[in-house]
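Predict structure. Chain length: 178.
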Amino acid sequence: MRIEYPGAVYHITSRGNARERIYLEDEDYAGFLECLCSVAKRFNWILHAYCLMSNHYHLLIETPEGNLSRGMRQLNGVYTQQFNRRHNRVGHILQGRYKAIVVDKNNYLLELCRYIVLNPVRAGMVRGPKEWRWSSYKETAGYGKGIACLTKDWILLQFGREKAKAETQYRQFGGGKT
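Prediction complete.
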């Protein structure tokens, strides 16, 4: 049984079945993000960070209503249906149940945001997080508009009240320097 309560913050990961790819083309990545935003809106989730890798994903989600399981069932189920339709396949694409680790927002959230967006750098796929198209880094760092459901306010406030300065500080914090 999952620990769920109003205001909980989770680091969520889900991996492809047999570690296979869960995104085969850009339309899959974009479709997942569209589905994620739909679920976030429907279940009143706060999305602090995300990173989509080729065979897994990381999400940092806050659930004001304590409804993680219902939302995750929707997210993974709808995305699987979309993926299977798009690629003329059937069956599971995700391996087992997703992992959800409860996070202390005050002590660990910022460090976890950095960990999540640096995944493609650590995997050797890109040299810096700005180069990876499928994470929340670029939008949080002020390099453009991303997905509608990403909430950057809490993260940026940790670096100051003035947005431009906070984005610069975030870039220094999360730009691959650990």
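Summary: The chain has one domain: 8-174.
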